[in-house]
Design brief:
The chain is mainly alpha-helical and 88 residues long. The chain has one domain. The chain has helices spanning 4-16, 22-36, 44-51, 56-64, 70-85. Helix 1 (4-16) packs across helix 2, helix 2 (22-36) crosses helix 3 (44-51) and helix 3 (44-51) packs across helix 4. The chain is globular. It holds the Pfam family DDE_5. It comes from Xanthobacter autotrophicus (strain ATCC BAA-1158 / Py2). InterPro entries: IS701-like, IS701-like_DDE_dom. This is Putative transposase.
Length: 88
């Protein structure tokens, strides 16, 4: 059985591929893991401290300066939702 972070990585794979830049693709799974993982505080610093304190600056940059085209990501989200719930 896959660990939860492996399962999350597999789920996020089509979305992450649409982010373009390598650093965005690296930080996205970490950020999502911080949002859905344990811990009461979901702001950047507490999440980074729980997940990877050494990469706080990259974590912060991913959120505060992250520029990507949301249209392809939203289209993939719609396809994924359709697949998970059985179609349109």
């Amino acid at each position: 059985m896959a660990s939860w972070d492996e399962a999350l990585g597999a789920f996020l794979k089509p979305f992450v591929a649409l982010l373009g830049h390598k650093k965005r693709r690296q930080m996205c799974p970490l950020y999502v893991a911080g949002l859905i993982g344990p811990g009461e505080r979901k702001s950047m610093r507490p999440m980074a401290e729980r997940l990877d304190p050494a990469r706080y600056d990259r974590f912060h940059h991913f959120i505060s300066d992250g520029l990507w085209d949301e249209v392809p990501i939203e289209a993939e989200l719609a396809r994924t939702a359709d697949r998970l719930v059985g179609g349109a």
